[in-house]
Amino acid sequence: FAATTEELAVNAVSIDTNTASASIADLRSMGVTGLDALFAKYAADIERFKKTGQSDDNWKRIAAALDTVAMQKDDYTSQLFWYTDLDEAKRVAKAQNKPILSLRLLGNLNEEFSCANSRLFRAILYPNAEISKYLTENYILHWKSVRPAPRITIDFGDGRKIERTITGNSIHYILDSDGNVIDAIPGLYTPSMFMKYLTSANLAIKTIKRLPAAQQNQARLKYRKENF
User: Fold this and answer.
1) Residue 17: is its pLDDT beyond 80?
2) What are the DSSP calls for 128-195, one per residue?
3) Nearest Cα to 174, choosing from 56, 72, 93?
4) How far is CA 27 from CA 9, 10, 213, in A?
5) pTM given for the model
6) Inter-axis angle of helices 57-70 and 17-29, nearest 10
7) CB within 8 A of 144, min separation 6: which ones?
8) In percent, how much of the chain has pLDDT > 70?
9) First to last CA, the chain
10) Cα(129)–Cα(131) distance, rounded to whole angstroms?
11) 8 A C-beta contact, residue 102 and residue 143
């Protein structure tokens, strides 16, 4: 018998790694529904960690399941689901009649050592309640790694070492459901400015979609010229 989403959520944090991996893969294949199942099941654990910061083995398994299903590091802060296949993101975007927010970055968004900019996105932009809600309701999310993020190791000479990435270099593209570029948001922005770009581009996409097909490309070019 096929497992229910709740059963998969339970098994996703099993101490049996094979059971956990298979359940996480099934939840990932369900898209947002699979991620929501984890947040529903572990809401109390997530809230507890947010308040205390205390991390035991059980929390580490919960966090790993969340991050792997979502494909974003520290996803407990944002509850966002990301596609890593643009064609799949476009398929879902067309089905839901939504635009796509496509992040291009150094490193991987679901790993600690992605580029400096993307780490700030994870800390400042994506967890912002207004941004998270707006993205969930209005966009399909996608990311692609351009290349590994450069790293440096700092040796304190007393046995202590820390490793850090040393560059930013990331950009958010806003695409319509066909993959046409509407806008580009390079580098770092405050939450309020990021929201301004998201809402403005979303409105522009809806306006352009209502135009005759022959006029849409010219309208996209005009919007980019006025906003880049």
Assistant:
1) yes
2) -HHHHHHHHHH-EEEEEEEEPPPEEEEE-SSS-EEEEE-----EEEEE-TT--EEEEEES---HHHHH
3) 93
4) 8, 11, 38
5) 0.90
6) 30
7) 84, 86, 102, 103, 104, 105
8) 92
9) 53
10) 6
11) yes
Helix axes 57-70 and 32-41, enclosed angle (nearest 10): 160
Q: Coil, helix or strand for 204?
A: helix
Give me 169's structure tokens: 């270099």
| Amino acid identity, position 42 | Y
pLDDT in tens, 160-191: 667 666 666 799 999 999 999 999 998 889 99
pLDDT digits (tens, 9 = 90+) for 74-90: 999 999 999 999 999 99
What confidence score (pLDDT) does residue 158 get? 73
User: How many residues does the structure list for the chain?
Assistant: 228
